[in-house]
Design brief:
FFLEE_fam, globular, 0% strand, DUF8198 domain-containing protein, DUF8198, 76% helix, 14 helices
Length: 255
Amino acid sequence: MVLRYYAAYDFMVLFSLSSNMSKLAAFDQLLLQYQSLNYHQNPAIAQRLHEVQAWMKERIAQTHEEFFARPENQLMAQYFLNRLYGGPDFDAMAQQIERLLKYAHKAESLLPENAIKTGTKSVSLAVLATQLDEQVAMQLLEDYPLETALTDDIMRQTLVKLDQGEARYEQLHLLDELGQTLDKYMRSTMMFAAFKMCKGIAHKYQFDQMYEFIQEGFAAMKPMKSAAVFIKSFTEKEREIIDKVHAGHPDPFRA
């Protein structure tokens, strides 16, 4: 249990950084966490990880299909699945973060502090999701041939064996915190105006991907009354899934 829990604890600590450090210090720590993942050096783990991530995204989309389909929720649902959840596309984001850190003094002067804080939390969740899913991928490689297709029951058994329950609950807790942060910092008209003013300079210094990552968060929130309410509805359903997995439910992924 302790070994499974360390990832979520590490990221909870990261969320508290920056008050006495550079605004981008937490990004440096996140990059180190991401670069230390095993799949970067192991093609078999990488293949399994991407299969696990694809299964997870499909499962999430199916579980929350009606909720995600509401017009006001569609953009945030896509932001969840394509940005906060990580996946192969996050490799490009990691390269952008590495470049961003090389020009930290410039980035800190360009980006509003609250946008950096919110971006840090979003990236933290993407990295944490990848870290937890890599554990699933490595367990699958121990138990099944690489060519074995993933099924709901294989995933159920693997999640039970890994005993990731506490880490997954903590992941959802951090996601709830992100919802509160989005409502607190990202709904300000002044904040949005200041952020828009950075676009040309961000492009000039090739911080486009990081800018777009945060900009998509703004866009996803626009049709919604509250990001925190959306995320709370999502995490409540996800907690039910975790409960059923670890209670031995034979088909825990069905809503």
